[in-house]
Amino acid sequence: MPPPNLSPQDTAKWVVLLVVALLQYIVLGVGLYVFPQYCKEDMHTSALSGRAWLNELLVGHPKRIYIALGMRRHVFLALVLQIRALGYMESQQSRLNLDESLAIFLYTCVTGLAIDHVAERFQHSHTTISEHFRKILDILSGPEFYSKYVQLPDANAPPPSAIRNNPKWWPYFQNVLGAMDEDLHSARNRKGGVTQNCLAVVSFNMRFLFFTSGWDGCAADASMYSAARLRDLPIPEGKSYLADAGFGICEALLVPYRQTRYHLAEWARAQLRPANYKELYNLRHASARNVVERIFGVIKHRWTILTRPPHYDMKVQAKIPSALVALHNFILEHDEEDIDRWILDEGAEDNLRGARRAQEIDFGRLSTTGRVSAAEKERAEKTRDEIAKAMWEDYQEYLDTRMDVDNNYYGDIQPEALD
């Protein structure tokens, strides 16, 4: 309202000034909104572009590229060549070469950083970073690359060398192809966070043989195993995998005895020798199946993105573990010594997984699903008893002929137990 006691002329002037002031504010507001749309200021203007930084990594100290991208230089270059060999080339419209796209994906997985941090590192927009991350993810998780490097063993393949060369496992586990377990990894949904479950089959030389992910975090071991067996996890007759008791007993899986000391940590606390054939079997079963824990520890320490969920939709996040599993096998195929860095690191024993669920709650779950007949369960139990009793007989003979137990007898799991 205009001030009181103004003349008609002064009132008219006051109204004009008010209208002019309002127009000025409107013009200023429109200008502040429109100016950034048409007169944008470049954000990524650093002289050290993503291309320049990658060139530094390729010609610089060998440890730099390993720290930044999770692999040595020759492995990175071999991966670029492999992707190109599969028919994936840079498009004419793309400003990025394939090696820079791959570097964006690897850097994101190694660091677990959000898109804006990766965009700052490579001096590209958020859209560009997301586009090229998804591009490489689709390639590595796709059937052409994944199926080439993640394969189940042939039915006629000889027993694994790790089994043949270990007197604690040979000949008892001569028909064992590898080990199986589930694992949780972090993901992010619109509500903040969620866990996804995966099922992995691994070899004794630290390679993945089979992998499936995208299950809800509370999915049971036996449920994932049953679904995998129906879909794409064939196990040759007479062969088996080591698994924990949550999978239940069947002819394709060797599981430990229930209500008997099992985990290596339990043996470490007890500092006792096995007292019967069941304890001896469980101890050796645990030491052999420990390869699963070790391989999960390796990939989680190498790829931080598995423990720090990214800001991508759930369909994209479900592909990430499969891509990194295939990448793990690719790295070891081209750099066998790479795994030594992680195996010798005490931290590679997967301490990121948190407290494990109690094993007792899942005992026999598979045998109650109706997929395992009573006859098969009886045969599986008989096979396990025969293996365990053969172990025990040989162990007793060993103790009789060598009363002073060699402290190195149990090698890699000392001082957890003296077997």
UniProtKB/TrEMBL annotation:
Major location (coarse): nucleus
Key words of the record: Hydrolase, Membrane, Metal-binding, Nuclease, Nucleus, Transmembrane, Transmembrane helix
Transmembrane residue ranges: 12-35
DDE Tnp4 domain: residues covered: 189-329
Stretches assigned to the DUF8040 domain: 45-140
Pfam families linked: DDE_Tnp_4 (PF13359), DUF8040 (PF26138)
Cofactors demanded by this protein: a divalent metal cation
Keyword Phosphoprotein among UniProt keywords: no
Molecular functions (GO terms): hydrolase activity; metal ion binding; nuclease activity
Domain of life: Eukaryota
Cross-referenced InterPro entries: DUF8040 (IPR058353), HARBI1-like (IPR045249), HARBI1_dom (IPR027806)
Cellular compartments annotated: Nucleus
Entry's Gene Ontology cellular component terms: nucleus
Family in the record: Belongs to the HARBI1 family.
The name this protein goes by in its record: Putative transposase
Naturally occurring in which organism (per UniProt): Mycena sanguinolenta
